[in-house]
Amino acid sequence: MSNTQQGSLHPANPWLAVDDCKVSDLEALCQNSTQIEEVPHASAIVKGVPVYDCAQLRADQLAATDEGTWRHALMAEWAGVWSTGPGIVIMKGLYPDLSVVDAATQEFNGLIEASRNAGIGGDHFAKPGANDRVWNAMEKLCLRAPDVFAAYYGNSMLAMVCEAWLGPAYQITSTVNSVNPGGAAQVAHRDYHLGFLSPSEAARYPAHVHQLSPLLTLQGAVAHVDMPLESGPTLYLPHSQKYLPGYVASSLAPFQSYFDSHHIQLALNKGDAIFFNPALFHAAGHNYSKDIRRMANLLQTSSAFGRAMESVDRVRMAQALYPTLQRLQQAGQTPPADLDAAVAACAEGYAFPTNLDRDPPTDGLAPKSQQHLMRSALAAGTSPAQFNVLLSDRELTRRS
Questions:
Q1: What are the tens digits of pLDDT across the range 87-131?
Q2: Global pTM?
């Protein structure tokens, strides 16, 4: 097995590079199959993906002699699918009462219409007019219709899915995506965190971080309409989450070609959901239908542990430090690498979380960070007063 496959790090060189990426290594992982005996709680295997009948799971839960043991066994099974299995599960009938889904859809459509009227609708990750997106749909739904929110997110099966990968105290965020007829397919990619970085940026992180990143997030999508294949539901490459340098490789032409030739596509019905490891190669499909607005609520559930222990006001720190760094830079006696280290200790190097309505990505999938702004200002000779205004304006933009 190549040292670029999951779990096989070469201790002498824990860094990943484009030159290490071989389609043959990915292909070896993707040849694996899933047997129903490996997922005893699943009702079927479709295109290599375990399908779970939520009505049956709920009945089994009620009938279980020891509910806690039953629950832990089911969650362990899901975690195994996401880590060492195909990387994806289908939850049929996650929402048994479709009126709950319809009520949320009505509110989401109202938010889309309001965004259009305000001139801020659309999707940063697609051509204008192809999609309608509602960023931070979770907060907006809660404030707009708390009764609908309570019915929609008050779903113990959804909570069990999230806890299976992330444990308790997880945080859910959501983005509603409505792909209009004719909406083009995406290119294959991985998701947040490292998936939002360019290959060169991702390669700066050691290999163990590439292993860690998928453990911090669970991706999901709830179907708000029936999604036959013609409507372009998401394309997936099962088992690809196990390919260690995938964050570096996913945009490379040979890997895109392999994805195009070997992906699967899974139809969903309204109220179904799909959950997958964020490192799985995937891409939204082309909506070939004439009249289906393919609406899904894209759920991104995050680990409770992705936060620092102390609350730090890095805006105030950056504004206080900037004049000193500028003086040191102008004096020319402090090595540039040391100045850069001071910036790294002071300012936020990651652009998220942010308000994607007002802070869209630039030159990639992520907005610019505090560190980028600080370094750019130092390079341009921006005065401290001007820097303070730039940083304050940025913070107002990114906050909800």
A1: 999 999 999 999 999 999 999 999 999 888 877 655 545 454 558
A2: 0.84
